[in-house]
Structure formats: C-alpha cells, structure tokens
Amino acid sequence: MKPFFCLTVLASTIGAVPVSMPYAPGLDETGTASASLSKRQDDWDVVRNELTDVARVGCKPITVIFARGTIELGNVGSLVGPPFFNDLDDLIGADNIAVQGVDYPATIEGYLIGGDPGGAQTTADLLNQAATNCPGTQIVLSGYSQGAQEVHLGEAMVSAEVAAQIAAVVVFGDPFKGRPFPNVDPSLVKTYCFTDDFICDDLPVVDTYHLEYIVDTPAAAAFVQGLVSY
Fold this sequence. Notes:
The chain is an alpha/beta fold. It has helices at 54-57, 81-92, 108-112, 117-133, 146-155, 160-163, 217-225, and strands at 62-67, 97-101, 138-144, 166-172, 189-192. The protein contains 7 helices and 5 strands; from the N terminus they run αβαβααβααββα. Mean pLDDT is 87; it is low at 1-5 and 8-42.
C-alpha cells in the first residue's frame, strides 16, 4: 500500500493561499504569472455553485466544472481553482462563465485508492446536469491533484453525447497523467505537470512543485480561450 505519511505535508500548506514560491525548474508545461493576479488577490472564493444554482444564475456560454485537490477547502479549493477562474474571467469575461465545484470529501484516503468514488459520481452527475439543463453551454472540465483523478473517473462515466459537449479538459498535477479521456479528442486536453512533481508519477509525495501550479493558470486559461466561443 502507498505510504500515508508522505501526504501529511498538505495539512500545513493548503489553506494558507496565495502562496509565494519561486518558479520551479524543469517544467513540462508552464505559463507566466498573470499581471492581473495582484488585482484579484482578494477574489479567492473557495465555494462556487453556479451550475447547481442555474435557476438564479442562468446558463452561460461556458460552464467550468472543477474538482479541488486533497484536503483543500470548499468545493474549488484555493491553490489552483480561483486563480484559474480569474484568468478565464480576464480573457473571456466573467459574465460568460459559470463555475461549479465538485463537492466530495477530498481526503488523503480517497487519493490513495485512486480517487474518491463518490466524487467521480458527483463529477459525472454535474456533467449530465450541465448537458441537460444548459444544452448550449460549452463545458470546461478541470481538476487539480486528486481532483484530476475525479474528473478522469467522472468523465469516463458519462455518455458519448454528454462528452461531446466538453470543449476543453485541463488538469493540473495529475496522478493519472497520460490516461485518455473517453470520447474527448486529445487535442482538447491539456495536462500541466512539473517534471519533478512526484504526484504526476502517481507517487504519494507532495513536494514544492506540486503546490506551484498557479504559474500555469494563465496558460491554461489561454488554452481554453482558444477552444471556446462566446
């Protein structure tokens, strides 16, 4: 069984965000920090429910379904989700985007078994809900760390018709790096993994690299922008 103790470092790091860290060398994919982040450093809502609250918010041209990492707060966390959404807002416009977090326990145990089964089902349910309730929306599916496991597992549970509504998939620090998404064209998928991030090699060791994906959120947002219309 995978060692448990290597992940306990998360408890002392996640939750105190934003984090100021040096750029990590040896990256597979990386962006540059958005100049807008300093303006938006107080815009770090860790709970987003704009799909489940669609009756009030209304359908948007783009619906982002995001699964947070292990032991992060709320349903979108703070390390990757909010900066990614802020960068999307800068490029696409907040009025064009609905953000929905995946509610699941995000426990260390869930990561160690390859992703929480309930979180996978919730991800699939949200994909089905977006496709049914907002048939014109373009779905962006995204997750960080264990959240990447959840979006892999959840997307594999939906029909080809629902998967066809997915315009982009973006995963960060993905333990399932290289695993395809069924019925999603690989050209629509972007994986951000630092070369020295052990989690991306499915090893339960959290180092500094795994906590620095904020540097990739501008590039990730630009990737999405190139695939959607609004």
